[in-house]
Amino acid sequence: MILQALYQRYIDLSQDPGSGISKRFFSMADVAFVLEIELDGSLSRILDIREQKGKRLVPVKMNVPEQGAKSSGIKPFFLCDKLEYLIGYVTPDDKLSGKKREKQWADAIEKFKSSKQLHLEGLTPIHDEESQAVIRFYERWDPEHAREHQIVAQMVEILDKTTNQVAIFKLKGHHHYVHDRECIRQNWIRNKEKESLQADKVGQCIITGAEERPLARIHEMKIKGVKNAQSSGASLVSFNISAFESYGKEKSFNAPTSDEAVFGYTTALNQLLASERNRLTNMGDMTIVYWSGTREQGNGQDEIQEEKEDFFKSFFVDLPTEEGENKEQDQLLHDIWLRVRNGDELTTTMTDALNAPFYVLGLSPNNARIGIRFFWQGNMTKLMEQFSKHVQDLAIARLPAAQDLFPTVTRILLETVRKDAKDVWKSIPPSLGGHLFRSIMEGTLYPYPLFTAVLNRIKVEGEINPIRAAIIKAYLARYARIHKNLSLEEVVTVELNSATQDVPYRLGRLFAVLEKAQTDAAGGYNKLNSTIKDRYFASAAGTPGNVFPVLLKLAQHHMSKSDYGSFRDREIQNIMAGIDQLPSHLNLQQQGVFMLGYYHQKQSMFKKGEKKNEE
C-alpha cells in the first residue's frame, strides 16, 4: 500500500512538465563543480557553481543520469561523479602515512580507470562533438598528476576544503551541460533499457500488477534525507539475511518489484524528503513526509493541493506568512482552516471539496535501512475530523491578546524543556515528538511523558502559561473521553467551572484566590518580589494537606490588610464548602487537575478585572 501510493505520486508528477521530477534512468544529484573542456579534450577551467545560503556554500541540485548506491567497491557514475572518479583527484589525509597513503592514491587511479571505461563504452557510439570531447579528455588525462595540473592547482585550496566534490562536464562555448545533450540522453536511456531486459528474473510486479516485467534483484536507488540516517542513503526494502527469505527466493525477489516501480517509488520518496513543503523533521526521531493524492490539473488545482499540504503542516510547525498574499483559490481552504480551529462543523460544499486522498508517512533510521514508524491514509475530511478533535481538546480560556496563539506541535514540545538550554531540541526525548504526532493523527491518548514533563516544568519554573494549561487540559480531556471518566470531564472545560465538586480542581482555585489575597494586600503584583506561588505551589499541588493550613493562616493576615479582604474571604468559603478534609497527597493526574483549576481561576479573575476597567 505504501509503495503503491508513492509510485502513484511518481506517475502523477511525471505527467507534469513543471514538477521537476526525474524521468526513469535519471536522478537528482548535488553538484558542486563543472569541468569545462575544449574540443580537443583539454581541461579549460573548473567552475565552482555552489550557491550561497546563509554562511555556507551548498551544491546545486541537478537532474543527471541515474546514480545508484556506491558500495564499498569501485562504482563509477555516468557524466556526474566525484572528482576522484572523473580526474583521480585526492585530498591528502594527514592521518594516513606509508602504505595507507599509497593505497589512497592507487585507489583514486583505479576509480579513474573505471570511470574512463564507462564513458568510452557509453559515448563512443555517439558521433557528437560533445561526447567526442569527453572521450578525448579521458584519453589524454593523467590521473597520477591530477593535483599538479595547472588548472587543478589553481583550485586545490577550494577543493581540499570541500567535502562534496561532485562535478559534471561542459564543453567550452556551450550553454548547457554535456549530460543534457539530447542525443547523449537518448543513448543513455537505450543502454539502460537493454540492461533492464537482461534482468535475472521476470515476473509480476507487486506494485503495478504488470506481468512479465524485469524484476529488481536489489532496490539500488537509496533513500536520502531521513534524519540521522546514513548521508549516502539507505534502503526502504532490503533482504540481506537468510532469515528474511522464504520459498527459496533470494534478496528482493521475496517482494517481486519491477525495475520501473523501484525507480518510481524511490524517486517520489526522495522528492518528498527534499521538499520543504512536504517534510517535517522535528517530530522526535521520525522524519515525516506527506502528500495529497491524485494530482488535479488546471483551474488553480495545483495551488489548492499546495494549500492542503500547507494546512496539514500548520498544525505541527509555525509557517511563515507572506504579506499581501490573497489568492481566490485559497479562500475555501482558509475558511475550512478557521472552522476547524474554532471547532465548527464543515459545510457540505467544503466536505465535497476535500475528498482527495491524503497520505502521511513516518520514517526513522535503522542502520543501513529505513524503518516505517507510521503510515496514515485517508482523505482531507477524515484529516479535518482528527484535527478538529485536537483543536477542541487544546481549547483553553486565555486573554484576548493571546487568542491567536494556536499551540502547534513545535510549541507544545518546547514547553517540556528549559528555554535557556543550549540545544533545546536535543533536550526533548527523541520519541516524544513521534508519539505526540501519532496521537494527533489517530485520535489516541496524548503521550503520558508529555503530560508529566509539563507538570515538572510548571513545578520547577512556577509558570502556567496558556500553552501549558492547554496541554494539561488536552491530555485530561482525551483521557476522560476515551476512558469515559465523567467526573474528570467536569473539570476539563475551556473556562472556569465553579459548580464542580472535584477536590483537586477546587484546591487549585483556592490557591489562586490565596495568591490574589496576598497581592491585594501588597497593592499589586509589581509590589512583591515573590508570591506564595514561588514558594509553595509545587508542594501545594503534591501534598495539600501539609501546605494549605499554613497558606490559610497567612491569608487571614493578608485579608486583614486588603480593601477586598471580605470579598476574598467569601470566595475562600465558597470554594472550601464541602471539603471536609484536605487530602494528604495528590497523584500526577490530580496534580494536573489542580493546576488546571488554578489557571481557570486566574483567567476568570483577570477577565473580571478587565470588564471592571472597561466599565
Describe this structure in words.
The protein has 615 residues and is of the alpha+beta class. The chain is 47% helix and 12% strand. The protein is built from 23 helices and 14 strands. The chain has helices spanning 2-14, 83-86, 99-123, 129-140, 150-153, 156-160, 182-197, 259-274, 301-314, 331-341, 348-353, 380-394, 409-414, 424-427, 430-442, 448-461, 466-482, 486-489, 503-522, 532-542, 544-561, 565-576, 588-614, and strands at residues 26-31, 33-37, 43-48, 51-53, 56-58, 60-65, 80-82, 166-171, 202-203, 213-214, 279-283, 286-292, 357-366, 369-379. The strands form five sheets. Strands 3-2-8-7 form a four-stranded mixed beta sheet. It has a four-stranded antiparallel beta sheet with strand order 11-12-13-14. α19 (503-522) runs antiparallel to α22 (565-576). 37% of the residues are buried.
Biggest sheet, strands in spatial order? 3-2-8-7
Low-confidence stretches: 322-330, 610-615
Task: Please give the number of β-strands.
Answer: 14
Alpha plus pi helix count: 23
**Helicity, in percent?**
40-55%
Broad structural category = alpha+beta
The mean pLDDT is 84
Give the CA-based shape. Answer: elongated
Give the amount of beta strand, in percent.
Answer: 5-15%
Distance between the termini: 62 Å
Please state the CA-atom Rg, rounded to the nearest Å: 32 Å
Main sheet makeup: 4 strands, mixed
